[in-house]
Amino acid sequence: MIEVKNLVRTFNSGDRTIKPVNDVSFVLEQGTLASIVGKSGSGKSTLLSLLGALDKPTSGDVVVNGVSLARLPDSRLTEYRRRDIGFVFQQFNLIPNLSAVANVMLPMEFAGIRKAARLQRARDLLEQVQLDPSKHERRINRLSGGEQQRVAIARALANEPKLILADEPTGNLDEQTGDHIIELLSSLSRDHNTTILVVTHDRVLANKADRRFRLQQGKLMEEPVRDRAVAASA
Amino acid sequence: MDTTGKALNITQGTGLGDYTASSTGALLGTTLAEKNNLSVGSTFTVNDQAYTVTGLFDAGTAFGNNAVYLTLPTAQTLARTPGELSSMIVTVNSMDNVASAKTALQAALGTAKADVTQGQNLQTAVSSLDSVKNISFIAFIAALGTAGLIILLIMVMLVRERRREIGVLKAIGAPNRTIGLQFVLEALVLAALGSTVGAAIASFASGGIGSALISSTTTTTASTGRGFPGGAGGGGGFPGQGGPFGGASQLLSSVTASASPGVIAGGIAAVFGVAIIGALVPALLTARIRPIEVLRGE
């Protein structure tokens, strides 16, 4: 379970103070698929960074399964990111001079999984995100944007995290692949009890969510959603 | 051995065999043989005595190659000074033995019959050798410092260029020690490659550098000539003298440009140490930053 308590993040820009995340609070039960929508610059990515312990809040706290991130030292936050979080970045943030499969293997390497096991799992994950096997060994900078996005999603799933934070995970995908990724994320939350929080402009993905939030000028508001089964059939 | 004590290089034929016995064999310098159309097996006459050319030699100098060598008794007969010597060169195996050899020779020959002197420039040679050694050591330290600074700056630049990669690795859960180790290993590989290339260049160049420092009349041999690793190259120490350091070069039959194992080990340790620090410090400093600051900053 994730509890977000009065989360605030401010930035100073000259004389002005910007609050992309302004007193945000919510609770997500384990296995929830939630979506956050909002205009560009509304603070969605900043909120994801705070939940993923990539950034520290100005005030407030994120409590994951009873553990307060604000109180964790850097080494424990690194461990939290490695074991509990799968992050899909909007800009993918893959290592360009490594192959697709090597990128997916990286988090497993940090987690101490032996090479044969992580190679097999990396290949399985790349197949799950429908990356052509002939491109598994290809360097990242020789893959298209959509292919890189699939590698980024596979990497986020590598250590079977409890929480997946995805920033526009279908933004660069064609409709068919996008639908497949949406189904993959949905099945992860449904069948593997993985909590998934996606920032998206994709209406189909947003409608698939169990809970839907809108971030507006740093304030988070929950919007009503249709039943998941209904939404899926829509 | 020629008149300077240097071994003759016989290019054709053979030597004179027993140099203490009378013989009509003669060793000719290549220039003298050429001028007189003589070759191995040819004969020539001096004071009605025929001599046969047993071999030709190359002394390395025009003056030296205009000489002819006979066995000692034959030369004494030719010079009508049987049993006499005008001068004799004695080569001592170590400078430490010069004084005792001089004393022994004087005692054996007698002070009334012979003056025994050591090379006049011996002390100069030794002090000049020390000067060369000191100069080359200072140059070595300076080159090491410069190479270290260059390696440090290159590593800092390389790490800075890869800040985003460090941010990504941190974001997906890489511990600081893993990031630091990765950059250190890369730096060590770079330093090892640079050292290998530098050592290879230095081993070839050290002979030339030695020759530049030592008189051209002195044979220079680059046996181990290694610079310190790290690509900075350069000959280690030059335990020799001559050329600009005075005429003492004639006392030296060969000069070897070499670096002692201690100097080489010190150079390797210093270069690898600098590479490790140069990679580790900026990598760890970057890894301490929140991942989002690195990712956002790009």
Observed structural traits:
heterodimer, A: 234 residues, alpha/beta, Rossmann fold, 2 domains, 6-stranded mixed beta sheet, 4-stranded antiparallel beta sheet, 8 helices, 36% helix, 27% strand, B: 298 residues, 5-stranded mixed beta sheet, 7 strands, 49% helix, elongated
Give an account of the 3D structure.
The complex is a heterodimer of chains A (234) and B (298). By secondary structure, chain A is of the alpha/beta class. Chain A is built from 8 helices and 10 strands. The relative contact order of chain A is 0.19. The model of chain A has no long low-confidence stretch (mean pLDDT 90). By secondary structure, chain B is of the alpha/beta class. Chain B contains 8 helices and 7 strands, in the order ββαβββαααααββαα. In chain B, a hairpin with a 2-residue loop joins β3 (43-46) and β4. At the A-B interface, α2 and α3 of A face α5 and α8 of B.
Fraction of helical residues of chain B: 40-55%
Radius of gyration of chain A: 17 Å
What integer is the average pLDDT of chain A? 90
Calculate Rg of chain B over CA atoms.
31 Å
Order of helices and strands of chain A: EEEHEEHEHHHEHEHEEH
Q: Estimate percent helicity of chain A.
A: 25-40%
Which overall shape of chain B is indicated by the principal axes computed on the Cα atoms?
elongated
| Alpha-carbon distance between the two ends of chain A | 29 Å
| Residue windows where pLDDT falls under 50 for at least 5 positions of chain A | none
Our count of domains of chain A comes out at 2
**Which class of secondary structure composition applies to the elements of chain A?**
alpha/beta
Do you know the CATH architecture of the largest domain in chain A?
3-Layer(aba) Sandwich
